[in-house]
Give the backbone structure.
Amino acid sequence: MLIRDATAEDWPAIWPFFHRIVAAGETYPYPLDLDAEQGRAWWLLAPPDRTAVAVDDAGLVVGTAKMNVNRPGNGDHVASASYMVDPDRQARGVGRALCEDSLRWARAQGFAAMEFNAVVETNIYAVKLYESLGFRITGTQPRAFRHPTEGLVGLHCMHVDL
Amino acid sequence: MLIRDATAEDWPAIWPFFHRIVAAGETYPYPLDLDAEQGRAWWLLAPPDRTAVAVDDAGLVVGTAKMNVNRPGNGDHVASASYMVDPDRQARGVGRALCEDSLRWARAQGFAAMEFNAVVETNIYAVKLYESLGFRITGTQPRAFRHPTEGLVGLHCMHVDL
């Protein structure tokens, strides 16, 4: 598996699983009805921010990450990132590889920390992955996310020093 | 003191103290060099979000608040808000009146809660005000804000059910 910078040409390969994940509404507080153009504007970031893709040995895009400054001004020493893995390609290390890549990027850019602002607490796989990479939960906004089957669940803030 | 919806005509009265607060860089993770046009686009929100002003008995704008949905999609049942009070008019109840007004607005709009994503922990006056109105700190992102005199300080997440 290779992690590389995403290009505009990758979007047709990203969109099907990106859309499936967003429309399911289980893991991100994103607009559920995001269309392909809005999704591309939302996800494909320009420098100094970055979007990456994970490509398998057959050349297929199996996951993607966006990484960016978390806040402007006197908060701009902290990065953030988001990840989407093709649900048909989960549990093969794609999410971990993308998260590790984003941490390398953030260190290389000189960020002091990476923070996630809204990790859905029922997304146990993601929470455990982030914790295994050094993140800790710094707090939870209670009932801040309407999970389609679990009801009102919390959104974790997570943090790791770089 | 009156709280009313802000209009584009209020911006020249808001900008001087807004700019002073933003440029001081002590209380908000906003771009320090925000100019008047960028500031207006940043602060004056269109429905369904809202910007309000506090006007004193002499008709002067002494404070302002913006209030908005905090997250899209399955997070859109939670509101957020931000407040700016003219530093020359502090400690006269302006911030409290603006915060109470935004809570009334959020309840009337049907939001289930209000959350703040980034309250600078050294902004003790604001933290105490929010706590007096029912907010509690749900977590703190450590060292997430470079205070110009205090150094690296935390950003609180705060929450109140409506």
